[in-house]
Amino acid sequence: MKLADRIQRLGTETAFAVSAEAAAHAAQGNSVYPFHLGDMNLATPANVTEAAVKAMRDGKTGYCPNAGIPRLRELLAADVSASHGVRYSLENVAIQPGGKPTIGKFFLALLNPGDEVLYPSPGYPIYESQIEFLGGVAKPYRYREGERTFTIDIEEMRRQITPRTRLLVLNDLQNPTGAECSAAEREALAELVLANDLYVLCDEAYFDIRYDGRSTSFVSLPGMAERCIILYTFSKKFAMTGWRLGASIGPRPIIDVIAKLNVNDESCSNHFVQFGAIEGLTGDPSGPRQILRILKERRDLAVELLNGVKGVHCLRPNATFYLFPNVTQAMQTRGFSDVESFRRSLLRETGVSVCSRLHFGRPLPGEHQCYIRLAYSGINAAEIREGLGRFKAFIEG
Asked: Are 141 and 197 in the same domain?
């Protein structure tokens, strides 16, 4: 069998390979501390679940409009308009079966073979995969570790732009680093977008997973709403990862194309699940607040414990549920020069399962520091304490 040539360019999300390694370790009777995958072990709020079950019982089990049911689109447009300081209507919203479809459909709508796309590295690996799969040229931009957060190297990004650069991927409140753009960074990026006629995928999967203050969207800057597609997902705020529900939000001409792609790809998103999302947007907000409270407690505990390990330095991000500690000195203490060997040895000897920087895009020239990524969305506080205690013993002996 001869597969299509493009399949050779298709990447994957290698965090799932780490999951398989952890499962194999657990199958041998070992304890595993699952910091590797950003799934959630928190229950979807009961009112959301009950609304979806009621819709199922009421017969909402058939096809529905390709762009999503109008009531959900209206509510989501109003909710995002209020939080982002822009004006959207239901015509600016196309419901999706999760967050990832917005990535692929954004590129399908706007990317021609040979077009260049700026995307973050480290970053969510599906960006790189989809760009190259569809014949684009993936041009990574880097983050640098600062005193309080990771920052985008704007000058390096500017040097990468050519007449063929067409698109920018911006994951503010970022996976894996937890980085949040400063106002100055957002303004500098907006200048680049306007000067170079770029269109932007604003991946806002973690916009509402914020522990203090308010998130600010790139689309709120002048001229950006007309150039940006927002990736919205219900997975994080409402602990609905397995429900597979999200949305593409942006200018109607692009949303109309994305809705047409819905027809070609999946016909429509799950009908009764959308009624659960309506309840999430309009009903009792105590469930999402409890989710945030628990995640914040886990973050604070994990950051404290990691910074108590000799040779480890971990920033405290104010959003997402990821930590990206620098383990360069700790690796040197244990005699490791390769971060993947360090990660595998950590799993084998302690049961602590993490991802490394290598699971989030190809390393860039000049990278000398070593990082691992820990997700605390799927592991309880007691397990965090026990697992990171083993991690400390592994490093310090």
From this structure: yes
